[in-house]
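Late entry, evening session. Most of the bench is empty. Finally got around to the prediction I had been postponing all week. Sequence below, unchanged from the version circulated by S.P.
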Amino acid sequence: MRKAMDKEDIKITDWQRILFGDTPMVFLVEVFLRTIVVYCALLVALRFMGKRMTGQLSMAEMAVMITLGAIVSVPMQLADRGVLLGLLVLVCALLFHQGINLWQVHSKQAEWLAEGRESLLVKDGVLQLASLRANKISRQQLFAALRNKGIFNLGEVRRVYLEASGMFSIFYFEHPRPGMSTTYELNESSFDSATTAEDDPHVCNTCGFLAEANIAGEQKACSNCGSLTWIKAVN
């Protein structure tokens, strides 16, 4: 356990302690190596946490922000830790960030490795279930984002991408078609196929795939996901 400093040991003119603390100068090399390991581990952890963890910030930027929070606390609050240690870690984090950005400018593969790729969540009004699961996005989360943009019919949507930044990019059909309602979970009973007219269009309850023909009362499997449940589509 580190021994607490006596008040007599704290002198404003003690530049050796202020700059280097109680550690030898060679410890700066260890700090450099520790920073590399911690920064890379943090970047990997954020990469596996998913895009929505970072919001509008990139993975590398989020890693730098978290690193900066850890950097400033120790040299500012502990009298036996040198300021130069914190400054070195700060410079290292910034250099890593700029180096990664420069690498990404010259290499598309490096950008994909550090930030990830965009993911297709909706294609021609149909949910891409595998992509939703891979990105840990629930249907409720996606529908909430669409409702926030004034979209209440999945048939209006040509494409929805989850960008590497964690933001949704939405592209529309010029002429919307019948599709799954984005308010379905809010009032499921109104979309029950048993209470709709026989000539009403139906969509798959799981992925939103539009039935090619009337399937009211039938146990026909969805050709897209295999679900047997169909609900009323909205126009």
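Two things to note before I forget:
The chain has a mean pLDDT of 78.
Strands lie at 119-123, 126-127, 157-162, 168-172, 202-204, 230-232.
Will write this up properly tomorrow.
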